């Protein structure tokens, strides 16, 4: 029987529809890391939204990747941007946004939003329905 362990390796698979822009949304409701000052746990809900180009992120690998931060100390801003950079490196998306909603600590909530746009990519005009 093999055990599942945290991993920094992000696996991908081929985007099945490279000819169109479509949005992939992933929610990670149980992200944890450690406060670099106190060592106490920080909890967050991460929301990943992206428009794939050639590759999509594989979800089990993403889960193990997120788990790998559980014992690491990181400021909210640093860990959000690190995760975005790793996801962009692995998937090379047309667009990606990572929103990290950190739960209250000391009476303060923190939300960090980081984005990546592939050079030359332009967003489609939104369609608003009545």
TrEMBL record:
<dbReference type="GO" id="GO:0005737">
    <property type="term" value="C:cytoplasm"/>
</dbReference>
<feature type="binding site">
    <location>
        <begin position="76"/>
        <end position="77"/>
    </location>
    <ligand>
        <name>substrate</name>
    </ligand>
</feature>
<dbReference type="InterPro" id="IPR050084">
    <property type="entry name" value="NADPH_dep_7-cyano-7-deazaG_red"/>
</dbReference>
<keyword id="KW-0963">Cytoplasm</keyword>
<protein>
    <recommendedName>
        <fullName>NADPH-dependent 7-cyano-7-deazaguanine reductase</fullName>
        <ecNumber>1.7.1.13</ecNumber>
    </recommendedName>
</protein>
<dbReference type="InterPro" id="IPR016856">
    <property type="entry name" value="QueF_type1"/>
</dbReference>
<keyword id="KW-0560">Oxidoreductase</keyword>
<comment type="function">
    <text>Catalyzes the NADPH-dependent reduction of 7-cyano-7-deazaguanine (preQ0) to 7-aminomethyl-7-deazaguanine (preQ1).</text>
</comment>
<comment type="similarity">
    <text>Belongs to the GTP cyclohydrolase I family. QueF type 1 subfamily.</text>
</comment>
<feature type="active site" description="Proton donor">
    <location>
        <position position="42"/>
    </location>
</feature>
<dbReference type="Pfam" id="PF14489">
    <property type="entry name" value="QueF"/>
</dbReference>
<feature type="active site" description="Thioimide intermediate">
    <location>
        <position position="35"/>
    </location>
</feature>
<keyword id="KW-0671">Queuosine biosynthesis</keyword>
<dbReference type="InterPro" id="IPR043133">
    <property type="entry name" value="GTP-CH-I_C/QueF"/>
</dbReference>
<dbReference type="GO" id="GO:0008616">
    <property type="term" value="P:tRNA queuosine(34) biosynthetic process"/>
</dbReference>
<feature type="binding site">
    <location>
        <begin position="57"/>
        <end position="59"/>
    </location>
    <ligand>
        <name>substrate</name>
    </ligand>
</feature>
<dbReference type="GO" id="GO:0033739">
    <property type="term" value="F:preQ1 synthase activity"/>
</dbReference>
<keyword id="KW-0521">NADP</keyword>
<comment type="pathway">
    <text>tRNA modification; tRNA-queuosine biosynthesis.</text>
</comment>
<dbReference type="InterPro" id="IPR029500">
    <property type="entry name" value="QueF"/>
</dbReference>
């Amino acid at each position: 029987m093999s055990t599942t362990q945290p991993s920094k390796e992000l696996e991908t698979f081929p985007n099945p529809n490279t000819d169109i822009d479509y949005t992939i949304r992933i929610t990670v409701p149980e992200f944890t890391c450690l406060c670099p000052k106190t060592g106490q746990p920080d909890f967050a809900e991460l929301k990943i939204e992206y428009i794939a180009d050639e590759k999509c992120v594989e979800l089990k690998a993403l889960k193990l990747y997120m788990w790998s931060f559980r014992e690491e100390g990181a400021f909210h801003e640093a860990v959000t941007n690190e995760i975005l950079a790793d996801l962009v490196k692995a998937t090379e998306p047309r667009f990606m946004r990572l929103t990290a909603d950190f739960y209250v600590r000391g009476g303060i909530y923190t939300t960090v939003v980081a984005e990546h746009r592939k050079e030359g990519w332009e967003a489609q005009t939104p369609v608003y329905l009545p």
